[in-house]
Amino acid sequence: MFYFVKFQYITMSTTFSYPDPRLQDELRKTAEAIVAPGKGILAVDETNEGIGKLLAAVGLQNTENNRRRYRQLLFTADDALSENVSAVILFDETVYQKTDNGQSFIEVLRQKNIIPGIKLDRDVVPLFLSEDEVTTQGLDDLAKRCTEYRKQGCRFAKWRCPLKISERTPSVQAVQDMAQVLARYASICQSEGLVPIVEPDVLLDGNHDIVRAQKVTEVALAALYKALSDHHVFLEGTLLKPNMVTPGQGYSGKSTPEEIAVRTVTALLRGVPAAVPGITFLSGGQSEEEATLNLNAINSVPLKKPWALTFSYGRALQASVWKTWAGKDENVRKAQAELLKRTKANGLAAQGRYKAGSVRSVAGDRSNYSANHQY
Amino acid sequence: MPPKGKKGKGKKGPPESGWMPGFGTKATMTTYFQYPTPELQEELKKIAQAIVAPGKGILAADESTGTMGKRLQDIGVENTEENRRKYRQLLFSSDAAISENISGVILFHETLYQKTDDGTPLVSLLEKRGIIPGIKVDKGVVPLFGSEDECTTQGLDDLAQRCAQYKKDGCHFAKWRCVLKIGRNTPSYQAILENANVLARYASICQSQRIVPIVEPEVLPDGEHDLDRAQKVTEVVLAAVYKALNDHHVYLEGTLLKPNMVTAGQSCKKTYTPLDVARATVTALLRTVPAAVPGITFLSGGQSEEEASVHLNAINSVDLKRPWALTFSFGRALQASVLRAWAGKPENILAGQQELLKRAKANGLASTAKYQAGSIPSLAAGKSNFANGQASHGKYVAGSVTGLGADAGLFVANHAY
Q: Which of A97, A118, A270, B276 shows a CA-CA span of 20 to 30 A to A264?
């Protein structure tokens, strides 16, 4: 057996394939529908543990039925919901749940023309020898899981990787890992016909200023899009769910929505290729009103905006809902009205048309921050 | 690397020496870099935006001595310093109307210090016309040992001092060309990474001296590959370039990109329309070039004058997002007819200048999607500027005015400026 030194050439992968044109079309159409003008995403993909805390706060046990009742409240809201909600991110359990009269949640959403999506990341595990940094697992058998969720009616997915700002973090290790994990996840999703939303969440935790937040966000985004390119992810069939650029929770100064908007859009212009159809911001620990005001400012800032800029909010769409519902059936209608108020407000903000304070919500100004937030 | 510059009050961190017990050898992620000062950002941004102002583009007149020699040889003119001076004088003393479509000129080092017949610096002809002078700062390609005939570009030594001097002497932007070749196994990982890195170092140094860097990662048209392969290579190369620029904290709003259009290889049997080229080109750019970059100034490669204009027009018309200016930085595609008309004779200077004005106008229109194919007939409009030593014809024919019949092209395979 001869051994030829020549065969050690590493061929740069410029001989990869683009996805099949029909797959490209489907992914692109779905992504564009999710970020249609005036619309955004309702994120209800809290893990059982995560939603348990919210149930406890309204005096309810963390049972499957209570989790079902809460999601039912959201999905059976008035049809007007779909004027501003294009899509919903679900947790695994919710995909298989039904309303009181036996209709699947997926079917309820489909009738409202709302696209169901699925949270695919599993849990967060430590990066050994790092300074308290983490990675997110869930790649094993991911293709199979995608096939199953697609069968159930999901057409997009979400995966979140948190990055923490501190004196010496995020480290090269954490940033590189986040980028690689998100790229593998995105590639697998697309192979099974799901649009991947990639979520590199630079956390609010810390007492850094807004400039540091911007730099970290820029570095993270550059690493992410290089990895997506390396893994031949079809960008036109993806969405980005980033943090806005804000000072850390513990920072003594405050930033105006305008400053947040300028720094956020600048960071995105530097790191996110315009082939990406839309950017659906996470709300982090912002209050409902804050998240709306900031989104509005982002859409009003006098900079290039070559992607849709809209919302994918969890806490910032549901804080008032929880407060109003308080776990009681007789409050369902009022709680649903609160939901519609916030989705309308954010739909306007996604077009730069929201007037500050014009939508009064029950918990509108309450911070939704919790340290080391786990969904 | 320990953070440079002043530390904020009460901020803790690794000492300047970079080591302290407990800190170990952990690498601090470079989220501690500096942005350029607001004044520098403003200056660089203004220059870059002026270069890609609507309807305008760049005349690349930075042919090295050797390359200029080939051009002159083709029209029977001797390659002397005086002839090179005369030729560049012809270009820069064109009617002031030239500045309606030419925003900047890239110069070769020698030209920056040459003078007109009456002793004024050539560069002042540009300044008088409101045209921004720029300078080629790379020192040519050298082989990458162990690679399959691949190369990198040198010129980083003393680059900061050179840039400082060029800025003093009136240059506000620079250009550096890297070359990548498509073959069965190329461009290699080595070539892509090396060229991306050297472009990033060049760009960083330029900005430190208040010069806007034009970054040129040229994927050569040599080869038999199809449009699809050209697009993939371009995407991979550009992704690497912009990752490197980010790693080196280059201020993107104060840079420009000078890429190849995405076209099939010169020897590819399949033919493509301008719309195919436009689609492939803009798609590749959308996937890789951040919208923070103000403009993209295409190189013409071996395309004929007309081909280059028609492609640029299609690029500006295609129904895709276009969040940067898309204009020209043409050398051969602005000068082929000029050289032919001039032929080295003083009595032909005006004719030569008129050819330049014609092509500048054509490309200015193309950069705003207003160019009608064939509407500006030029002496050498349809003649391909590519030749790998053999007779060749340009890929695009429709609407072109074919040249004088001679097939000898001006381009040699592995073209070096």
A: A118
